[in-house]
Amino acid sequence: MKIYVNQQACEVPDGLTVKALLDQQQIPAEGTAVAVDNKLVPKGEWENRVLIAEDKITVIRATFGG
């Protein structure tokens, strides 16, 4: 199925969760926030939130330093 991650189209398997997407993209959970269709998904729900076709996922990573 096709989803969008930070406005980039991606083909992923059906039934993929937010957590599995982050693992697939090698994005560490630490310092990461995820929104699906502009709604924040709490970290505690990542393993249960199943993505569907055409979802628009925004992944934000905190950066440290000056």
Q: Could you explain how this protein is built, in words?
A:
- With 66 residues, the chain is mostly beta strands.
- It has one domain: Ubiquitin-like (UB roll) (Roll).
- It is 11% helix and 32% strand.
- It contains 1 helix and 5 strands.
- It has one helix at 18-24, and strands at residues 2-5, 8-11, 32-36, 39-40, 56-61.
- The chain has a 5-stranded mixed sheet with strand order 2-1-5-3-4, with no helix packed on it.
- A hairpin with a 2-residue loop joins β1 and β2 (8-11).
- It is globular and about 35 Å long.
- The termini are far apart.
- The model has no long low-confidence stretch (mean pLDDT 95).
Reconstruct the topology from this structure:
Blueprint: E1 2-5, E2 8-11, H1 18-24, E3 32-36, E4 39-40, E5 56-61
Parallel strand pairs: 1-5
Antiparallel strand pairs: 1-2, 3-4, 3-5
List keywords for this structure.
66 residues; mainly beta; Ubiquitin-like (UB roll); 5-stranded mixed beta sheet; 11% helix; 32% strand; globular
- The parts where pLDDT drops under 50 for at least 5 residues are none
Name the CATH class.
Alpha Beta
| Spatial separation of the terminal alpha carbons | 39 Å
What does the main sheet amount to?
Answer: 5 strands, mixed
Give the tally of β-strands.
Answer: 5
Q: Biggest sheet, strands in spatial order?
A: 2-1-5-3-4
In the CATH hierarchy, what is the superfamily?
A: Beta-grasp domain
CATH architecture: Roll
Tally of discrete structural domains: 1
Mean pLDDT: 95
The gyration radius over C-alpha positions equals 12 Å
**What gross morphology would you assign?**
globular
Range of helix content: 10-25%
Share of β-strand residues: 25-35%
Instruction: Examine the coordinates and then state which fold CATH places here, giving the name of the CATH topology.
Output: Ubiquitin-like (UB roll)
Class from helix and strand fractions: mainly beta
Count of DSSP-assigned helices = 1
| SSE arrangement, N to C | EEHEEE
